[in-house]
Design brief:
This protein has twelve helices and 14 strands. It is an alpha/beta fold. Strands 3-4-5-6-9-10-11-12-13-14 form a ten-stranded mixed β-sheet. A two-stranded parallel ribbon has the order 1-2. A two-stranded antiparallel sheet has the order 7-8. Helix 5 packs across helix 6 and helix 7 runs parallel beside helix 9. The longest helix has 15 residues. The radius of gyration is 22 Å and the shape is elongated. It starts with a helix and ends with a helix. The C terminus is likely disordered.
């Protein structure tokens, strides 16, 4: 009886059509008795023309659309809220998923092109002390199509092409490894948006085994390590993942990534007043990454109400940068985008949940 119940449940699960590669889609379509060229048409509607549903696909017959709707799930995120910065036009999106969860994405306009920062999970289990995304823990991983549709929905909303994608929003991308790889495959496919691998950045807090596994894929994406501490002790204070991986083990994985791919590593270093922004921290950081082909992105920490961390003073940030540059280490201070909106990862989602709970209690 249990077997029959399990079989019945499995038979109700639909395939996620937008997460299929073109070859996988061709196989599915041919198994349905349709011509292979239909797969190419469907793929272009989903990944080039960014159709929101089957009904927008004008050269697909009504009968086939009906069969597709019965057999396949079609992910199309619902825009729940958008905040637009009056300072620089940055937009922060809150998208609702089909199961009622929410994820955040950010659109940033630069002179060199438009960038979108997407989430890879609903929530996060990494526990970084200064991040709002992790406060409620991890709910679930995002599918490749849910990652893709953040980019697609923003492209439709702005009417502009996205040239750079940063997987640095809510979640730890390497904690969702297989779905991340499929997302990269789809977003860079020449039959879709065809964004260059070199224009994709994936952030990690330092999961060593997946970092080495990613290096062995020999992709041309940029790996960004959330470092945030110049010693093991300082890193443990800010990032619980440091209890699992020693800082030197993480740096060794970064060196391995460069050796395998030739891609320069980016280090994200959030400066927290009185915690990791001293001259001693700068010296320790220089010793830690000595000889590496890397770039350091200095980020004055974005305060969140749930934590008491404060951003370093501007003079301390500049002093830290000067210390690094005096040792011939490339270091820039991140340009703060969207300062007048819920800028930090997880802030908009938490505020939206709080608003909904308040309405429910009323």
């Amino acid at each position: 009886m249990d077997f029959l119940l399990q079989f019945w449940r499995c038979s109700l699960i639909k395939t996620d059509i937008k997460s299929l590669s073109l070859q996988e889609l061709k196989t599915e379509i041919e198994n349905m008795g349709e011509k292979a060229f239909r797969a190419k048409q469907l793929y272009e509607w989903m990944h080039k023309k960014l159709a929101r549903n089957y009904s927008e696909m004008s050269n697909i017959s009504s009968n086939l659309k009906e069969v597709l709707a019965q057999k396949f799930d079609y992910v199309s995120l619902k825009e729940a809220e958008v905040q637009t910065s009056k300072l620089d036009g940055t937009r922060k999106y809150l998208f609702e998923l089909s199961d009622g969860h929410f994820v955040e994405s950010v659109w940033m306009k630069y002179h060199h092109g438009n960038s979108v920062c997407i989430s890879s999970q609903v929530g996060c289990r990494m526990g970084c002390r200064f991040c709002a995304s992790t406060i409620d823990g991890l709910a679930r991983n995002l599918t490749p199509s849910e990652m893709l549709d953040q980019v697609y929905a923003i492209s439709r909303s702005t009417g502009e092409r996205v040239s750079n994608v940063v997987v640095m929003g809510t979640g730890e991308p390497l904690d969702n490894y297989e779905n991340l790889l499929k997302f990269i495959q789809l977003i860079t496919d020449e039959n879709g948006l065809h964004i260059s691998q070199r224009n994709i950045t994936v952030s990690t807090c330092g999961l060593v085994e997946p970092m080495r596994r990613l290096a062995d894929e020999k992709l041309q994406i940029t790996l960004a390590l959330s470092l945030h501490g110049s010693t093991q002790e300082k890193r443990k204070e800010l990032m619980p993942i440091a209890n699992q991986y020693d800082i030197h083990e993480v740096i060794a994985a970064c060196r391995y990534y460069f050796a395998q791919t030739g891609r320069r590593i980016t280090f994200e270093y959030s400066l927290v007043a009185g915690v990791n922004d001293t001259d001693e921290d700068a010296e320790n950081l220089c010793r830690l990454i000595d000889g590496m082909n890397c770039h350091i992105n200095l980020i004055p920490v974005n305060p969140i109400k749930e934590r008491d961390y404060r951003a370093s003073a501007r003079s301390d940030v500049l002093n830290f940068q000067n210390k690094l540059e005096s040792r011939h280490i490339n270091a820039t201070i991140r340009r703060e985008m969207g300062q007048d909106i819920d800028g930090a990862c997880g802030q908009l989602r938490r505020r939206y949940h709080g608003k909904e709970e308040s309405l429910g209690d009323g």
